[in-house]
Specification:
Elements: E1 3-8, H1 12-23, E2 28-34, H2 37-47, E3 51-54, H3 63-69, E4 75-80, H4 86-92, E5 96-99, H5 105-120
Parallel strand pairs: 1-2, 1-3, 3-4, 4-5
Helix pairs in contact: 1-5
Length: 121
């Protein structure tokens, strides 16, 4: 099974790196990256991805607000350097919290597999 993925992060370089990693994994399908979270929310509700990689600290709206704004609720993997928000984000609906950076496609594969396991539990 392939899981469709979207990334929302104001760091365009991170979006680009994550896109390249996703494209190297045969069980993931990259369908979009957004540096503007408002555009990202609209795209998620339209595209209905299986997985969302989401940053916490963004200029327009935070990861918390982004989660609240979603009508479609994919598996949410928070990716941030702000580890102090981990508990709150998991309570808000994130399946998994990961600190940046994601080092390789294999690292990403392990993160996603772990999130999928947690979602099934």
């Amino acid at each position: 099974m392939k899981y469709s993925c979207v990334c929302i992060d104001d760091d365009k370089m991170f979006n680009e790196i994550l896109e390249q990693y996703i494209k190297r994994l045969d069980f993931l399908e990259f369908i979009g990256a957004y540096s503007n979270p408002i555009e990202g929310v609209m795209a998620i509700d339209k595209l209905k991805p299986d997985i969302l990689f989401l940053d916490v600290d963004m200029p327009e709206i935070s990861g918390f607000t982004t989660i609240d704004a979603l009508e479609h609720k994919p598996i949410i993997i928070m990716v941030s350097s702000h580890y102090e928000h981990e508990r709150e984000l998991l309570k808000a609906g994130a399946t998994k919290f990961v600190t940046k950076p994601i080092m390789s496609p294999d690292h990403l594969a392990n993160i996603v597999k772990s999130a999928l396991q947690e979602e099934k539990a």
